[in-house]
UniProtKB/TrEMBL annotation, chain A:
Gene for this chain: moaD
Highest rank taxon of the organism: Bacteria
Record InterPro entries: Beta-grasp_dom_sf, Mopterin_synth/thiamin_S_b, ThiS/MoaD-like
Coiled coil: none
The protein's name in its UniProt record: Molybdopterin synthase sulfur carrier subunit
Length: 83, 158
């Protein structure tokens, strides 16, 4: 299984905060997982293709592609605005 | 010399409850501390000209705490820090309520001032918090500010 979390504006736009997906080989990279999610139809494609989307794997921000394994936790969120 | 990091002197709290700054500051104090610098951030009454009635804060549980601890670790590697605390509130906050508190103690004021500013600058650009403003005309998620990224970039080593 792979766990995918969405936060803030991205969460609202998708009306989804958590996906628990049975493991598939196409989720073997972060780009592969994102492409699979974008193919879920609208609004998924538009929301996940927005500029400045931040991606994290196992709670660490990833700036390029990354290898994923079953059990990983991935998150998609907009630029942070705390403080 | 890099001071070995004493974990319990570097505290992080994410909470819905208000905090008492006097108690937080007192807990930071120790005999070797010649200076404590603190920062308190509050909910402003207006932002970009729009009146605000409340601020809602969302975060990424787990990652937020790890991210703040990493920022404190980095500050303690770069400056002589005796102890440091970050408290950040989440949930629904009213105008005028405190949102965030950072306190740093050090032997001398220079390190305390600098490390406190560094922690705030990185908190604003890296820790996974998001603000949603509620006002008379509706609600909106805040956009990240380029000026915050520029402030954080100043600290990057050449």
């Amino acid at each position: 299984m792979i766990r995918v979390r969405f936060f803030a504006r991205v969460r609202e736009q998708l009306d989804c905060e958590l996906l628990e997906l049975p493991w598939e080989p196409r989720y073997g990279t972060l780009d592969g997982l994102q492409a699979a999610l974008e193919q879920r139809g609208e609004p998924w494609g538009d929301v996940l293709r927005q500029p400045n989307l931040i991606r994290a794997v196992n709670q660490a921000v990833v700036s390029t592609n990354a290898i994923l394994q079953a059990g990983d936790e991935v998150a998609f969120y907009p630029p942070v605005t705390g403080g | 010399m890099v001071r070995p990091l004493v974990r319990d002197r570097f505290a992080v709290s994410i909470q819905t409850e208000p905090f008492v700054t006097e108690a937080l500051q007192k807990a930071l104090h120790e005999r070797e501390a010649g200076a404590i610098v603190t920062f308190t951030g509050y909910v402003r009454a207006c932002n970009d000209g729009a009146a605000i009635t409340a601020l809602e804060l969302e975060h990424y549980p787990g990652m937020t705490e790890n991210s703040l601890r990493a920022i404190l670790d980095e500050a303690a590697q770069r400056w002589s820090v005796l102890a440091a605390t970050v408290v950040h509130r989440v949930g629904l906050l009213a105008v005028g309520e405190p949102v965030v508190w950072v306190g740093v103690s050090s032997a001398h004021r220079g390190d305390a001032f600098t490390a406190c500013e560094y922690v705030m600058d990185y908190l604003k650009t890296e820790a996974p918090f998001w603000k949603k403003e509620h006002g008379d005309t509706g609600s909106r998620w805040l956009e990240a500010r380029a000026s915050d990224s520029e402030r954080a970039r100043r600290w990057q080593l050449p």
